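Need a sequence for this fold. Nothing fancy.
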């Protein structure tokens, strides 16, 4: 805790809250677009500690949550139709409800579905089982994409032919643009994700400030980080400024991680991607480049990633509106009854980064 305590210091927190109160004349709707920030805001009671002139909005910061329903259905259908293949994925994905089932349910019915903690673990499964086809069901933002790219490069270098990736990776800045363009919710400024920005660099958000006049602050995840980021945004709004600032300087730079970006660019290229609640966003996804086509599950198995031809069917679950920041989880008719982390009705309650999971765990009694 040596290097964390200072970012949870009560005296610093109270001092920041007093500084924030000095901007009481600034009406601000601030969106965080990282699931870890969403949980920090809820866990540390930050929302309730702020004055009424500040509205914190949770955006599409959970990669599990924003995965389109059609993409979830596609992998479930594959698991049913090819019982000989191994599907490897991160833990949260197996519990996300598709239209008619989950990967967890399909595993109980005999499909070979395994939880891994890294794409290299999925590659090891392929190496250890050369007679089996291994598909890594890969979701995530820019944080995880470089490690997936590295696993594909490693598979090619080691000539592992039975390893493929179903890439559903998504890019953060295009989603921010889509939110601002939609007009569904007023956003005066963004708390930008520290993990993502450590990879892509804070300069990736410059168009948000320049073209939309919305200030951005890249924040760490402890309560002092988040409160100081809110202070920085309010200061910009008070002064009539719109620029990119980095609160999380101990990790983030303007240029990001050059090596990680090079690896990502070598393996992936941008494409349009369908997001739950936001629809198809141009240039917001990552597909595997032709040079690595042998590792592309879409090519190998004919699995099709969701595109604009897929229309989300309305239902009682309001995850789509939660992800857009149009409503809070409390406004969903299913929240807490019957939708709970033990029996989730939608992805925002499944994921450890989901907004509904954060509200359920930390804010129900507030």
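Here you go.
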């Amino acid at each position: 805790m040596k290097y964390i305590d200072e970012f949870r210091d009560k005296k610093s927190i109270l001092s920041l809250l007093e500084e924030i109160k000095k901007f009481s004349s600034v009406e601000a709707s601030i969106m965080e677009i990282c699931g870890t920030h969403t949980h920090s805001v809820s866990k540390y009671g930050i929302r309730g500690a702020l004055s009424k002139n500040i509205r914190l909005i949770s955006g599409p910061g959970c990669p599990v949550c924003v995965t389109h329903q059609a993409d979830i259905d596609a992998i479930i259908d594959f698991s049913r139709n090819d019982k000989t293949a191994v599907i490897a994925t991160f833990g949260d994905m197996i519990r996300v409800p598709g239209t008619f089932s989950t990967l967890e349910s399909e595993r109980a019915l005999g499909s070979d579905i395994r939880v891994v903690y890294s794409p290299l673990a999925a590659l090891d499964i392929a190496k250890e089982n050369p007679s089996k086809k291994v598909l890594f069901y890969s979701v995530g933002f820019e944080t995880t994409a470089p490690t997936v790219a590295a696993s594909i490069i490693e598979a090619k270098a080691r000539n592992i032919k039975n390893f493929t990736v179903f890439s559903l990776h998504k890019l953060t800045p295009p989603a921010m643009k889509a939110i601002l363009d939609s007009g569904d919710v007023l956003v005066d400024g963004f708390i930008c994700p520290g993990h993502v920005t450590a990879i892509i660099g804070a300069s990736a958000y410059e168009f948000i400030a320049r073209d939309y006049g919305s200030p951005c602050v890249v924040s760490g995840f402890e309560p002092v980080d988040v409160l100081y980021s809110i202070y920085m945004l309010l200061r910009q709004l008070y002064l009539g400024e719109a620029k990119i600032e980095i609160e999380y300087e101990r990790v983030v730079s303007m240029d990001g991680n050059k090596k990680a970006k090079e690896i990502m660019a070598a393996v992936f290229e941008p494409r349009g991607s369908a997001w739950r609640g936001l629809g198809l966003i141009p240039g917001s996804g990552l597909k595997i480049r032709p040079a690595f086509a042998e590792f592309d599950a879409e090519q190998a198995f004919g699995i099709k990633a969701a595109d604009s031809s897929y229309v989300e069917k309305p239902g009682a679950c309001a995850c789509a509106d939660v992800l857009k920041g149009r409503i809070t989880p409390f406004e969903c008719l299913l929240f807490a009854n019957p939708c709970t982390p033990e029996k989730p009705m939608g992805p925002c309650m499944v994921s450890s980064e989901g907004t509904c999971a954060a509200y359920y765990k930390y804010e129900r009694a507030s």
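For context: DSSP finds 17 helices and eleven strands in the chain.
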